[in-house]
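Annex B. Sample input.
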Amino acid sequence: MHSVNKSWFYRDCKQAKMNSHSHAAGPGSPPSREKISLQRMGKLKIVLVLSSAYFAAAILGGLLTHSLALIAEGGHMLTDIGGLALSLFAINYTRKEATPRRTYGFYRVEILAALVNSLVLVLLSIYIFYEGYRRIVEPEHVQSFSMTIVAAIGVAVSLASMRLLGGHSHPHLHADLDSHSDEGEAGSRRHEQENLNLAAARLETFGDAIGAAGVVAAGIVITFTKLYLADPIVSIGLAAFILARTWALIKKSTHILMEGVPAHISYEEVQRAMLEIRGVTGVFELHIWSITSGMDALSAHVVIMDTTKAQAILKDITSMLEKRFGITHATIQIENYHPEFSEGGF
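Annex B, continued. Sample output.
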């Protein structure tokens, strides 16, 4: 029997450390991947601080002005604070090595944190729905001017965060890394994942800007028309938006914790692709799951007839899984017999 555990991630982390010493950037050299990662983390930290400060201001302002819309906007900000914190966690922990006791590292902490954050937001949304309904039945006086000022600050914070997260790509970095096949491919995946984290954070701040603008609009309406219904109506709209986003996150987090097949991968297609590898006669006990968001894994028993070609077949399988399905952490056990094997069976 032969087995392989193929993880580009751990190799990439070690290689990145060696490269930081062996490829010192000169005055005209492109920035290193490590430097770019640190720059991204710095941006996310600034945005996290700004968002947290506005979250506190929105909750406090909502309590002082009696504006449910501001409290709802604070809840909306909390979804993004959680998202930013998880993005920082993901980028930070892709730069850490696993330990002998935690061979996968602390990746599941990201999923657990997302689930807890989601449950808190569900409770907050239920409260906002209840309070919004009560205020529609019995409208409550709101200090609209102060409410508008706080919400306007929120718009400014969101726009500043979007600008900060805009950033620039580094195409010459990719070109430089392409000359190192394994390192470049592994590092490019991590580089791409960090780009996705930044893009997601930028999209979240755009949602914040829209939410804060809605509160500003409600404040203006109340100021000039005394239509206090505008406050609970905007609040319920924001709560619905929070609940929709939170429900999607709960489903994804639960699916990962239950070790379900990643949504973007077809179990049947992977099985067929493995059977199409020359020399493979059976695939059994195939399991595909996500260790955390963006990090997929696979394990399987593969039956072959000619054991002298085991290493070549193993290489073909792992190469195919990485190129076609993006599965870079695969454990394959090669066998020449399996109890479930039957003629023409899987």
